């Protein structure tokens, strides 16, 4: 009878796990459209709630006090982090959270390893992968966080013999994996030593993997680490033989990979190039040439106002410089005034405009820009000739015509927003300094380009004042 | 054991395909909330952490300590991830028709 009841409750628990997995899938599907996204997030959260509650009913849990401590501390930290974080700091926080997911999976794998079970190589492989992926995700995310929050230099860190060090490390990691799975006592005496060694190697790998990558490439790294945090949870699912971990982990792993791929395409670089080349190498060859490209044509606020006032379509191209200058709100105000003046206003957003995929959209949404006027380069490039005025605010490399015209340019082939084909282009810029990639931008010297020098926020506010005055 | 593993592998492969299908339809406007939302989902490892943390301190002190640390980290991930995603999505508004 007892056996029967246990059998029954196990089926119920597993059915509820399947239900939780379905809620995650529906939640992710609803995240595909701005109208349903918020509800989708709630659906996904209720799936998580269900999975947690049903787990708490498990008979093997005999003591709730430690669980309570962990959940309380975690909830408090999570709550404050989520409600306090500034939208500009979102990439750092997502990086940090990825790392927490990774370390949690590592700890789950470790506790299963040390609990003492019948040795079985499939389980040992799963534990090895959980600890390895979780550890790499954790230390890699911490480095990504430090680079994004500028706690350490965002410059790519390259050194001689990097490849050799990496190859040696990978060799060691493989060896220690064999040691764990077959446990021959090759270079460790007990389970604690081998586990500690693998953790150490995984942390080292995570650090060495992210440290050579430059700050400008961090969006790719966060997307990849996002994928890793999912894969770590997935591997942990094989350790505790739980299908909901495997399904959700795989969904997150796939999601991170797709975003990684999108970011790489937006920069016209392969993943291998982002991970292993260090953008510094490109930088050096680029800054050498400063060919005379002619004169730039500055414009003052009053003249810019007259041109904008006569425009019937305006395209705003924001870059991270706009967010640094905190100009989003002034830009939104200008956009509204232009619309009131009868112009059609759109915002063209390049995938690498922010510090993580979709970051610029969030920053504009925070400034109350309606999401239906945010468009992608592929939507506006074909109709660029019909745009009266293009306002480039704090963007540089993503509007550089060299990406299409100059085969020698390091960014040749990168998809850009082709602002140079608009009737008039305003470039709001502090000075003539070059962008992230450190390359000259011929857009500034084109005959239809006018430079509006000065702080982006100040320039836009002045334009707003002209409209109101 | 072997059949169970095979089944789990089957689930894994199907989930990966499903993930690719689902995510490739998400517009770039929503990529940041997607990422933080997915991040919250990866906190599902909390399920394993709860089992370890509740296994009884007297008999399994090490497991409980590791498990409790895992519960803490995974909860930060889950609670923080869902809350911040909700906060971001609440800012995405369409202009009301005038």
From TrEMBL, chain B:
This is proton-translocating NAD(P)(+) transhydrogenase. It is a multi-pass membrane protein. The keyword Nuclease does not apply. One of its GO terms (cellular component) is plasma membrane. The chain crosses the membrane at residues 6-24, 36-58, 64-85. One of its GO terms (biological process) is NADPH regeneration. It catalyses: NAD(+) + NADPH + H(+)(in) = NADH + NADP(+) + H(+)(out). Its EC number is 7.1.1.1. It comes from marine metagenome. Keywords: Cell inner membrane, Cell membrane, Membrane, NAD, NADP, Translocase, Transmembrane, Transmembrane helix. Residues 9-94 form the NAD(P) transhydrogenase alpha subunit C-terminal domain. The keyword Cell membrane applies. Its main location: membrane. It holds the Pfam family PNTB_4TM. It is found in: Cell inner membrane. GO terms for molecular function: NADP binding; proton-translocating NAD(P)+ transhydrogenase activity.
């Amino acid at each position: 009878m007892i056996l029967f009841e246990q059998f029954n409750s196990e089926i119920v628990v597993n059915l509820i796990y399947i239900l939780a997995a379905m809620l995650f899938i529906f939640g992710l599907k609803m995240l595909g459209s701005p109208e349903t996204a918020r509800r989708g997030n709630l659906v996904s959260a209720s799936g998580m709630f269900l999975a947690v509650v049903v787990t708490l009913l498990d008979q093997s849990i005999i003591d709730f006090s430690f669980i309570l401590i962990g959940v309380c501390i975690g909830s408090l930290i999570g709550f404050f982090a989520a409600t306090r974080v500034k939208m500009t700091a979102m990439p750092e926080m997502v990086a940090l959270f990825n790392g927490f997911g990774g370390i949690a999976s590592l700890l789950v794998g470790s506790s299963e390893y040390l609990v003492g079970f019948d040795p079985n190589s499939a389980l040992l492989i799963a534990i090895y992968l959980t600890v390895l992926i979780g550890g790499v995700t954790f230390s890699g995310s911490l480095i990504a966080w430090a680079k994004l929050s500028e706690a350490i230099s965002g410059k790519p860190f390259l050194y001689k013999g990097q490849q050799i060090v990496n190859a040696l490390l990978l060799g060691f990691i493989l060896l220690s994996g064999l040691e764990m799975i077959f446990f021959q006592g090759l270079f460790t005496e007990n389970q604690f030593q081998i586990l500690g060694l693998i953790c150490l190697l995984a942390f080292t790998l995570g650090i060495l993997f992210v440290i050579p990558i430059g700050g400008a490439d961090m969006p790719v790294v966060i997307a990849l680490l996002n994928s890793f945090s999912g894969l770590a949870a997935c591997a942990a699912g094989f350790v505790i033989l739980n299908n909901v971990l495997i399904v959700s982990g795989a969904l997150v792993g796939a999601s991170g990979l797709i975003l990684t791929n999108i970011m790489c395409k937006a920069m016209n670089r392969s993943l291998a190039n982002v991970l292993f080349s260090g953008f510094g190498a490109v930088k050096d060859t680029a800054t050498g040439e400063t060919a005379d490209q002619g004169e730039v044509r500055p414009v003052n606020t009053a003249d810019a106002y007259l041109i904008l006032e006569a425009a019937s379509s305006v395209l705003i191209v924001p870059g991270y410089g706009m967010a640094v200058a905190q100009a989003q709100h002034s830009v939104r105000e200008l956009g509204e005034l232009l619309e009131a003046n009868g112009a059609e206003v759109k915002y063209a957003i390049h995938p690498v405009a922010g510090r993580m995929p979709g970051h610029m959209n969030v920053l504009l949404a925070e400034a109350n820009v309606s999401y239906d006027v945010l468009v992608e380069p592929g939507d506006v490039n074909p109709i660029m000739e019909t745009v009266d005025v293009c306002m480039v605010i704090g963007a540089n490399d993503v509007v550089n015509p060299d990406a299409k015209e100059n085969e020698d340019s390091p960014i040749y082939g990168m998809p850009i927003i082709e602002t140079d084909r608009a009737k008039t282009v305003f470039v709001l810029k502090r000075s003539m300094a070059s962008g992230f990639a450190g390359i000259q931008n011929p857009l500034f010297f084109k005959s239809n380009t006018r430079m509006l020098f000065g702080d982006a926020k100040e320039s836009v506010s002045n334009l707003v004042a002209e409209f109101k005055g | 054991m072997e059949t169970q593993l095979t089944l789990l592998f089957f689930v894994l492969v199907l989930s990966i395909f499903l993930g690719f299908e689902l995510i490739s339809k998400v517009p770039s406007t929503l990529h940041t909330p997607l990422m933080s939302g997915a991040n919250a989902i990866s906190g599902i490892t909390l399920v394993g952490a709860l089992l370890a943390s509740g296994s009884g301190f007297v008999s399994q002190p090490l497991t409980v300590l590791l498990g409790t640390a895992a519960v803490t980290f995974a909860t930060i991930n889950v609670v923080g991830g869902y809350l911040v995603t909700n906060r971001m999505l609440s800012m995405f508004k369409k202009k009301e028709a005038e």
